[in-house]
């Protein structure tokens, strides 16, 4: 049995006529220690997929099994880094991270917890801002706090929902490296949602496209057999990198085009409405 398994998972939102199936028949297996990236189109259901694995929402059909047990709610062993940093605005950087550390490492001494918080804040280069509150930080800095907080909780499975998409290239590169260091040194398992194929190739063992929704399904996997550690500049020179990148992008473009041509074939019935002509206005509005 795989470390994480999704079996025929489907999820809809809404009721009756307004019901939309966002994810349909999702099957996914991730082995312990693997780093998997899901690349997908905007609105295809990537966050829904992360929320399901995190246990924040429940599937309508299918099973999500983590380490042999069904996922029935959120747990510290499955840590999430969200796209929008979700920090507590009234707490400073130290306290935002320490709240999470205190929750997970209840039995550790005060000194150990303090050290842990400081280490992880330092890891994202925010030590000089450790006493600042979120509103005093830039968007990139806030996202770094969120990354630091999630990593400090030492989750066994790290779920990342486009955590770096709003960052500048330099910060993004640094955090990619930090996440990879933690993943490999601590032998973690990671699932990264990204809209950046290059980020996926740099970080993951496999890339799996999430086809456009509604009824989004997972596409074929692309294995990344490029030796680690991978260097961004060196990657660009590798012929296997270029081939892989082109195949993934071609797949995504094809599937995107197919979806848009299907949508344009669709005809919509308009309601047969008669215009209502109002007469006898008693007042002019200008
Ligand atoms: N709680 C909800 N209730 C109703 N519809 C929802 C809900 N959450 C998401 N949706 C809809 O489901 C679809 C998929 O949303 P989701 O956020 O999972 O996609 P995404 O791929 O993460 O999007 P993005 O790339 O914009 O972050 C969208 O059409 C969205 O409007």
Automatic annotation (TrEMBL):
<dbReference type="GO" id="GO:0016887">
    <property type="term" value="F:ATP hydrolysis activity"/>
</dbReference>
<keyword id="KW-0067">ATP-binding</keyword>
<dbReference type="InterPro" id="IPR003439">
    <property type="entry name" value="ABC_transporter-like_ATP-bd"/>
</dbReference>
<dbReference type="GO" id="GO:0005524">
    <property type="term" value="F:ATP binding"/>
</dbReference>
<dbReference type="InterPro" id="IPR027417">
    <property type="entry name" value="P-loop_NTPase"/>
</dbReference>
<dbReference type="InterPro" id="IPR050166">
    <property type="entry name" value="ABC_transporter_ATP-bind"/>
</dbReference>
<dbReference type="InterPro" id="IPR017871">
    <property type="entry name" value="ABC_transporter-like_CS"/>
</dbReference>
<protein>
    <submittedName>
        <fullName>ABC transporter ATP-binding protein</fullName>
    </submittedName>
</protein>
<keyword id="KW-0813">Transport</keyword>
<keyword id="KW-0547">Nucleotide-binding</keyword>
<feature type="domain" description="ABC transporter">
    <location>
        <begin position="4"/>
        <end position="237"/>
    </location>
</feature>
<dbReference type="Pfam" id="PF00005">
    <property type="entry name" value="ABC_tran"/>
</dbReference>
<dbReference type="InterPro" id="IPR003593">
    <property type="entry name" value="AAA+_ATPase"/>
</dbReference>
